[in-house]
Design goal:
The chain is α+β, with helices and mostly antiparallel strands. It has eleven helices and 15 strands. It has three domains: about 45 residues; about 120 residues, Uridine Diphospho-n-acetylenolpyruvylglucosamine Reductase, domain 3, CATH 3.30.465; about 110 residues, Enolase-like, domain 1 (2-Layer Sandwich). The strands form four sheets. The protein has a five-stranded antiparallel beta sheet with strand order 4-5-10-6-7. Strand 4 and strand 5 form a beta hairpin. Keywords: FAD, Flavoprotein, Oxidoreductase.
């Protein structure tokens, strides 16, 4: 199929983009890398009256470090992160996640902001950045606001954008000394959408951490205080203390009734925990498993 007819515009600065987004009549879609929007247009799953190409806005390619926080514009590509063309405060964690997204042609054009706004439950950034505690910066003609990513992603393909509002940047806190990080996903074959994702950010010294289970039917399942998955305590021996039964119960409570699906998710999460234990001593690569 081919897209339904639509108008196309490419604003050159953010103020013009936001003004056009506010006053454009009819249905409007923003396009960055187009890796999700393009197929949806071709299949006529979306039929906008106007497509606004945001790739001509310099501010949306911004990359900077503010204190211990990495700020990346919405149009930073997966390949920009993978190749180290932007700064990093995550000890290579984001580069490892980026390198496992789909295929290189997709990473060359796909964008960080586009992935988060599309909010596919199987998307790498949706789960990994929730685990890292990221925030999004949202802007409209009337002002700006920040929102925690786990509050921004409200469901499968659903986000908390108000009319006339867009995501302009993502704020990622750094991984400081003593922070353990693990990210594992399970795919039928390399490059395909994940069937299960596990991401953990643990601080054994402080005794707390975040655990996220992704590639579920809705928004990623966030366990903001994950001690009950580790026998009530997250210490240096957290990998040995991980309780698969507690994770399985969590998934049951979240509505996952298929025992096989729960087993796959728990296994992937356990491997993310095991990977996190190794990061306390030496860097590891993101694991992307093919069945």
């Amino acid at each position: 199929m081919k897209p339904a007819p639509f108008a196309y515009e490419r604003p050159g600065d953010l103020s013009a983009l936001l003004a056009r987004l506010a006053d454009a009549p009819g249905r409007v879609k923003l396009m960055a890398g187009g890796q999700s929007l393009g197929p949806m247009l071709n299949l006529r799953l979306v039929e906008p009256d106007l497509v606004l190409d945001i790739t001509g806005v310099p501010e949306l390619r911004r990359a900077a470090i503010e204190g211990d926080t990495l700020v990346l514009g919405a149009c930073v590509t997966h390949a920009d992160i993978e190749d180290g063309r932007v700064p990093d405060v995550t000890k290579g964690a984001m580069a490892r996640v980026a390198s496992a997204i789909a295929y290189r042609p997709v990473r060359n054009r796909g964008t960080l902001g586009g992935s988060l706004v599309h909010a596919d439950p199987a998307a790498d950034w949706v789960t990994s950045l929730v685990a890292l505690g990221a925030e999004v910066e949202l802007a409209s003609a009337s002002g700006r606001r920040r929102l925690a990513l786990d509050a921004f992603v409200t469901g499968a393909l659903d986000v908390a954008l108000a009319p006339g509002e867009m995501l302009v940047a993502v704020r990622i806190p750094g991984l400081g000394p003593g922070i353990a990080w693990g990210y594992v996903k399970h795919c039928s074959k390399i490059g395909e959408f994940a069937h299960a994702i596990g991401a953990v950010r643990l601080d054994p010294g402080a005794g707390h951490g975040r655990v996220v289970i992704g590639a579920v039917e809705g928004a990623p399942l966030l366990v903001p205080e994950a001690r009950h998955l580790f026998g009530g305590r997250i210490g240096p021996d957290f990998a040995d203390r991980f309780e698969a039964a507690a994770a399985d119960a969590l998934l049951r409570e979240a509505g996952m009734t298929d025992a096989v699906a729960r087993h796959v998710h728990v296994t992937v999460l356990a491997r993310a925990v095991a990977q996190a234990a190794t990061t306390l001593f030496a860097p590891t690569r993101t694991v992307s498993e093919a069945a």
